Amino acid sequence: MVTLAEVAQHAGVSASTVSYVLSGKRSISAGTRQRVERSIRELGYHPNAGARALASSRSNIIALMIPLRTDMYVPVMMEIAIAVATTARTHGYDVLLLTGEEGPDAVRRVAGSGLADGMILMDVELDDERLPLLRQTDQPAVLIGLPADTTGLTCVDLDFKATGALCVEHLAQRGHRDVAVIGEAPAVYERHTGFAERTLDGLRTRARELGLRLLHRPCEGGYDAMAVTLARILDERPGTTGFVVQNESAVEPLLALLRQQGRAVPEDVSVVAVCPEQVAVQASVRLTSVAIPAQEMGRRAVEQLVDKFDGRGGDEVVLLAPELTVRASSGPAPVREP
Q1: Which of 44, 133, 159, 251 has an alpha carbon within 20 to 30 A of 285's alpha carbon?
Q2: 38-75, pLDDT tens digit by residue?
Q3: What's the pTM?
Q4: Contact 121/102 with Cβ under 8 angstroms?
């Protein structure tokens, strides 16, 4: 393993000069800095993480709080986490993954221990109990998600309210008047999770404006739960011709059940999903969908946090505009017999 002394000898400078280049604590001439950096690259030197942290008062670690719950679609959460980790590495940071449902205790532990230079919080609820404590700390933080009150916070998220509105508009333009929303598991709404609540708000608001009848039913996902949910929807609204699905584990069961009932997609019913691109294109009927920009959200969150570290970032809310891709699952509403 290459040592700091070997870098100093290779660059023709003192060990303390190499240390100052690494820590940035003293001004070093551009020529000397370039010579030291070239020696570091050529020798493949990696500073000891503990020593570097002591010298710079930084850990070069970002804490990512991502509670893994059974009622959430884990692949999307992990895609965001991977984007956070890979982007963090390009900026010289490692990621500490906190997956427990600790709430404010996790914020308190990270902020009070020096474990990390900053935090990224996921699975954000409208009235998230972590936020009062987060506002009291001096530690930089970014939320992937949008609470009800964003004052004093930096957030990045898909504009889920606009997403809901976009799905309704697409179905309305094709003549659908009765639309059913198959939502996340009931617990997601009971926690008032931001993305689910905001999508529903956008769906309901735009449906009222366009004169559509909208029915929302949460669903645990899976075949059995979807069968019960679909039966209830068709019993309550037998004229339903449009479905909006925001529940990845319900997509394929819904399509299978519609086939079994002799309801062709999209001739008899149209289906629009809010889901990852991979889920949409690999479904048994390629789905018209609004994609979840997981990688973009993870990347933006890290960049906002690094800006805060460098004193460039202020509190801001970044909402990514939804894009609806039309595929084989949506078409004109069927003509009803007089």
Answers
A1: 159
A2: 998 888 877 655 445 444 567 789 999 998 888 888 89
A3: 0.82
A4: no
